[in-house]
Design brief:
This is WD40 repeat domain-containing protein. The chain has about 750 residues and is mainly β. It is about 0% helix and about 45% strand.
Length: about 750
């Protein structure tokens, strides 16, 4: 029997409640039922208007609502900054009945043309200061603001542990998983668990947390072990679509398992926590109406018999979201119950749905022409509509395009070809933070590992490694440099320098660092094969791999841990010294010369003028960058500097990589910055090439057949001049490498 796809849910089994939208609030992203049977609902602003979130109590028997608080009344919102526009999937319940929740942001500041959270990430005036954590007494409306747990980060989903001292949450911008100790205010960062912005958490019967990455990889956090593990299970698109595949809804089943569904395609996975077996029940679409395009799920709830209900959003043609029923655990099939169009008010999406104790299903509509509203449905009186059911009167609505700035707001690195190598899909997450990357002979070699050294090989386009192996067992890489034509030298955590032969995938030489020397960085190889290194105190050493000897150099010291030595020729190096002094050091005679010119600095901040990267162009011009982000050139005679400015208000310039005799690429930003790749040449000057992001919501990247990526902390660059491929590596766990053929310049 074919489903009647044109019928609406009958009006006589529903009740419509309009939620306040007079100021432009058009969404709800938290709708929850407390242990004492009270409903709470957050009304939010989405995208186009500078609004702050509101929290209401909702009374299911009457549909009435009561305002508890407006975030604008409890938190000082600077009119130039992005406001806390949402409370998003973060409401939970403390043992004493109070609510805990956090704000989130997807709305612009009043002066912005659109919401640009990444573009303004480091801007102190127009950016987002960070989400605030609040504890709310629903009986007195008292709001206790606990502050901003992670500066600049937007909290995107949160949940209390079984131990209510701890509140766990996810970060939108960085994709990290965090824990806040409510007694000590200590925040623990567990690292990256998603490319970015995955919001849903769920707990099993033993209090273990489950979440997923943006590309559908499911992970678990066990509070007793205090560790995250990759469950090696991921949501699979039936057509190989590269869209949002993160887990978005879950239910605890009567048999102790978790029923989890991903955002697009809607695969239903039943995960058994004790065995970690995954039972795949299929997809949410109607069996007699398979979709051509990915279909979305909106809301998920189960009745007393654990028959599940959810919203189904089809993308093949215009259609409001429809309500679907599925007796999934008993082998049933999805049943169409009708379109959600109360009184002709088409629903574009259902954010959440909850059954009350009387068996009435309450669904919250968002992001439509009439949003937000609650539709209460007596599903016991609802059956799949037959051929004679009344046809819904549909007036198509398409959400306006709020991208008022358009493509000039895009931040990704533009290139002829872009391909992601998702290391997190092939290695343990802890081993995917890349320390070094090298490109040659059509192959990308990456050095990584937390406890040992992994060497991973790939070509320039594949999403899978060609090979991956451990080349050193006794320690992990700390610092790496290219050595010769086919080797990499790695300083290791066990106090050695190992030389890795890339083609044979083996360590050829392992040199023991003297016991009284704690090296921190390898800088470069001299023409005679000796290696230049420095320790934590800034002392500089020569290491001869052929003999294993170490020698400390006199009259040279690096002033900061981020400072580097720039190799000028066979014996001379450039470095910064005290404050903004600049020196030339001759390794052969161990003599330093202070130059009559200074490292460019910001007035009053010469203490941040350390040289953190540099390279020498073909004509002898030195191009270098500082900890404060200033880029400058030094004439071949070392007598005159030209300053080219800085990219942002903070962030060092580093990882200078020669593209040709006239051009270098480099990295802007440290571990807390949103890293960019830049270029410098005489012709173009200082150019921001963009961020290593492969985000399919971007119209320019939507149809690129590769995985998503969002590298926040860039650890390494490699460039293959013969093939014109640029490789950008992630320095965080859950790492990846993005490869670019023919990088394009934005201007």
């Amino acid at each position: 029997m074919k489903s009647n796809l044109h019928a609406a849910i009958p009006e006589e089994v529903t009740r419509f409640t309009q939620l306040p939208n007079g100021q432009g609030h058009n969404a709800v992203w938290d709708f929850v039922l407390s242990p004492d049977n009270r409903f709470y609902i957050s009304v939010c602003g989405e995208n186009e208007k500078p609004l702050t979130a509101l929290l209401y109590e909702y009374y299911p028997k009457t549909g009435e609502i009561r305002l508890i608080f407006d975030v604008a009344k409890v938190w000082i919102v600077d009119s130039q900054q992005m406001p806390p526009s949402k409370i998003h999937t973060s409401i939970d319940f403390l043992p004493d009945g109070r609510l805990i929740m956090a704000t989130h942001n997807t709305a612009p500041a009043p002066g912005h043309k659109q919401w640009m959270y990444e573009q303004h990430y480091e801007d102190p005036w127009e950016g987002y200061p960070g989400s605030i954590l609040m504890i709310v007494n629903p009986d007195t409306n008292e709001v206790q603001v606990r502050g901003i747990p992670v500066p600049r980060e937007s909290m995107y989903g949160g949940m209390l542990g079984n131990d209510p001292r701890y509140y766990y949450f996810l970060g939108y911008m960085r994709g990290h998983f965090y824990r806040l100790d409510l007694e000590t205010n200590e925040v623990k960062d567990y690292g990256k668990v998603s490319e970015f912005s995955s919001c849903r958490l769920v707990k099993d019967d033993k209090g273990r947390f489950y979440g997923s990455s943006y590309t559908g990889g499911i992970w678990r956090y066990d509070p007793e072990r205090d560790e995250i593990e990759d469950l090696k299970t991921r949501f699979i698109s039936p057509n190989g679509n590269k869209h949002r595949r993160q887990f978005i809804f879950a239910l605890n089943t009567p048999r102790g398992s978790l029923l989890m569904i991903d955002n697009m395609d809607g695969e239903v996975i039943e995960l058994h926590p004790e065995t970690l077996e995954a039972t795949r029940h299929g997809y949410i679409h109607l069996r007699d109406h398979p979709p051509l395009n990915p279909c979305g799920i909106g809301g998920l709830a189960a009745d007393e018999n654990f028959v599940i209900y959810y919203g189904l959003k089809m993308q093949d043609e215009y259609s409001p979201i429809r309500l679907v029923r599925w007796d999934v655990l008993n082998g049933g099939e999805p049943e169409n119950l009708g379109l959600v169009t109360p009184g002709g008010k088409d629903s574009q999406y259902i954010c959440e749905m909850i059954f009350d104790r009387d068996g009435i299903l309450h669904m919250v509509d968002v992001c439509g022409e009439f949003s937000p509203y609650v539709l209460a449905v007596d599903v016991k009186r609802l059956q799949p509509p037959g051929a004679d059911a009344k046809t819904a009167q549909i007036r198509p609505y398409y959400e306006p395009d709020y991208n008022g700035v358009g493509s000039p707001a895009f931040m990704h690195i533009r290139a002829e070809t872009t391909r992601t190598l998702p290391l997190h899909q092939h290695l343990d997450w802890k081993d995917t933070a890349v320390k070094h990357v090298r490109a040659m002979y059509g192959t990308v070699y990456s050095v990584a590992g937390k406890e040992r050294i992994y060497l991973v090989e790939s070509d320039y386009t594949s999403g899978d490694p060609a090979a991956s192996c451990v080349v050193y067992e006794a320690g992990a890489p700390v610092s790496c440099i290219d050595v010769g034509d086919e080797r990499v030298a790695a300083l290791t955590t066990d106090g050695r320098i190992v030389l890795i032969d890339l083609c044979s995938r083996a360590v050829g030489t392992a040199i023991a660092v003297p016991a009284d020397t704690e090296l921190a960085r390898l800088h470069f190889e001299l023409d005679d094969g000796r290696l230049v290194a420095s320790d934590r105190e800034g002392a500089v050493y020569l290491c001869d791999p052929s003999s294993g000897s170490f020698r400390s150099l006199d009259h040279i010291r690096l002033e900061t841990s981020d400072a580097v030595l720039v190799k000028l020729d066979a014996n001379r190096v450039l470095l910064s010294a005290n404050y903004d002094e600049m020196r030339i050091y001759d390794i052969a005679v161990m003599r330093a010369e202070t130059l009559p010119i200074r490292v460019p600095s910001i007035r009053g901040r010469a203490f941040n003028a350390a040289i953190t990267g540099g390279a020498v162009l073909g004509d002898g011009t030195v191009v270098a960058g500082t900890y404060d982000g200033l880029l400058f050139t030094l004439t071949p005679d070392l007598r005159r500097t030209t300053v080219y400015g800085r990219l942002y208000s903070a962030g060092l310039l580093r990882n200078f990589t020669k593209v040709s005799q006239e051009e270098v690429f480099g990295v802007y930003g440290g571990e807390r910055d949103a890293g960019h790749v830049f270029s410098f040449s005489r012709d173009r000057g200082f150019v921001d090439l963009g961020r290593p992001r492969v985000i399919k919501d971007n119209s320019e990247l939507r149809n690129v057949d590769t995985e998503w990526a969002s590298i926040h902390y860039i650890s390494a660059l490699a460039y293959a001049q013969e093939d014109d491929w640029l490789c950008v590596a992630s320095g965080e766990g859950y790492g990846c490498i993005v490869r670019y053929k023919g990088v394009a310049f934005p201007y």
